[in-house]
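Agenda item 2: threonylcarbamoyladenylate complex prediction
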Amino acid sequence: MDTQILSPTPATLQHLADHLRSGGLVAIPTETVYGLAGHALDPQPITQIFAVKERPTFDPLITHVAQPDVGYPYLEYLERDLGLVDLSGFEGSQRQSLADLLQTWWPGPLTVVLPRTSRVPDLVSSGLPTVALRMPRHPIAQQVLDRAQIPLAAPSANRFGRISPTSAQAVLSELEGRIPYILDGGECEIGLESTVILVDPREGITLLRPGGISLEQICQSTSMLTRVARSTKGLPTSPGQLPSHYAPGKPFLMLPSRLADLTGPDLKAMLTEQKDYGKLGVLLFSSQSEPIVASLQDYLGVQIEVEILSSSGDLEEAARTLFAKLRRLDCSDADVLLTEPCPVLTGLGHAIQDRLHRATANRQ
Ligand code: TXA
Ligand code: MG
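Presented output:
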């Protein structure tokens, strides 16, 4: 199969919307990462999404919905118009809290997991009684959803466990020959996947995947769902949130501290289990550690290729460039990759550290 990258002209958008309506797949840009979209209510394209991504069917997909007319209430839209959720377990004040939450963050990078109806195929939700919903704010994603007039299931457009794509070219390098169309919307504005929360009338809000919107921000936007469940060992387990994820093809190690705080012997000790490396690739958060690279190169007697996420250490820029720079190092001739821990561990820093932690976890 030939994979075409297409620009979003009105005629192309209409063609791709029709293709999606009739059960085809299209990679589309969103403000977070590119998604591999298919008709969410049709099991056939959903089966294909799992096959193309080589994704295990126990890992459920996010369903993307179009934005209704301004002022139209989101809960009625999801329940009555789309028929995707069953909110009968939510009492009046809980409904209001949920409505406030969606009003604050939609359209945008927040995915909300809610009780589903039987209209959602079991496959989309991996047999769970819930469905994950997101209303993207990217204008091209919105236009595709508007024209297609169907909800679109769209996991990140990468092969399972690998680095999420933040450009049309990155999608091509992941899925070339496996899908017919990639809609080009340029570089993604955020660069990290959406924050995923479970909203349960009894348990309150549970963070399933950290993203650009922090749990603290979410709590501030909803007065009544005050109970925030957090597992004592960190994040509660969500299907698909496996320890090893977002991983490059090469060995990828997390340094115990900033590269600038390490000595040559420290680094050498970290690399003792790595065989025959002639070149190292290092992903740095800012330019601060750059000056010591030359002396580390001399000490180890190997070349070091450096990628800097943000020269000024800006977290938003680091999130935006993370996957592209990791992908670049993965495609370089470096044999072993290293990164520093994120210098900030709250908000967006929490989300970045989560991705790096999974990307550097040993594959099982
Ligand atoms: O930013 C994003 O969310 C991107 C763009 C394309 O929208 N999509 C994305 O999808 O990251 P994906 O499939 O790579 O990640 C979806 C995650 C799954 O790993 C799973 O943990 C969680 O969402 N999820 C989906 N449905 C769920 C459910 N019913 N219950 C709990 N978690 C669910
Ligand atoms: Mg993904």
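Discussion summary: The first strand starts at residue 4 and ends at 6.
Owner for follow-up: CH.
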